[in-house]
Amino acid sequence: MMENNQLITIQNMAKDYPVGRGYFRALNDVNLTFKRGEFTGIVGPSGSGKTTLLNIIGSLDVPSEGKTTVLGQSIGELSHKKAAKLRNEHLGFIFQTYNLLPVYSVYENVEFPLLLLGKNAEERKKAVMDALEWVGLTDKLKSRPAQLSGGECQRVAVARAMVKKPKIVLADEPTANLDAENSHNILQTMEKMNSELKTTFIFATHDDKVKKYLHRKISLEDGRVVKDELVEGMGNG
To answer: pTM of the prediction?
Structure first.
């Protein structure tokens, strides 16, 4: 276990992307820590650097400067193989576009991360059914994504992210394609998982519906952290 329950430490981190003969600085001098059991949102307008920050935490990208440590591993120093191992074993991802495999059933979509981990059939079945029960979709396990509503597809995506009981779930605009009722259902499900499993959730969002559920808000503007606040009346688990 990491010291002080800190799962993620970001120090003086910057991220540059080449543009023409120069570069664009998407993130600048970011310093943050995240502890176990947080329910945190990275908020800000489009282009503020939210997704870039989430991608670096998720080892999908690497910092240009500074250091980002996730579960004791320095993201900028990981090989592709070690980064994939970190994601497979400890991180869950939820995207606004669901990213479900259309030819697979709900059961198979949720089972997929467990196949990557080499879990046996009995372990997989129990974990998948537990995850589908969490999101209220045990009656849809044989359905394919095309037969589901948008809200149901996103619940499958949540179940897939949670099936291996990851330490950290990264959610990029997870309610962007959902109506208010489905958004609240998804957020309440994730809040319950956060409370009961102590999973750390980090959202990238500019959705006011999501902001109401957050226990901590980190505001980005032009790639810089301009505010980092605990939400009154909310705890950190």
So the answer is: 0.92
Predicted local confidence at residue 178, as pLDDT: 85
What is the residue-wise DSSP string for the chain? --GGGEEEEEEEEEEEEEETTEEEEEEEEEEEEEETT-EEEEE-STTSSHHHHHHHHTTSS--SEEEEEETTEEGGG--HHHHHHHHHHHEEEEETT----TTS-HHHHHHHHHHHTT--HHHHHHHHHHHHHHTT-GGGTT--GGGS-HHHHHHHHHHHHHTT--SEEEEESTTTTS-HHHHHHHHHHHHHHHHHH--EEEEEE--HHHHTT-SEEEEEETTEEEEEEEPTT----
pLDDT in tens, 58-91: 999 999 999 999 999 999 999 999 999 999 999 9
Q: What is the pLDDT of residues 184-230, one digit of tens each?
A: 988 999 999 999 989 999 999 998 999 999 999 999 999 999 999 99
Q: Is residue 236 part of a domain?
A: no
Residue 114's domain is classified under what CATH number?
A: 3.40.50.300
Total number of domains constituting the chain:
1
Report if residue 137 sits inside a domain: yes
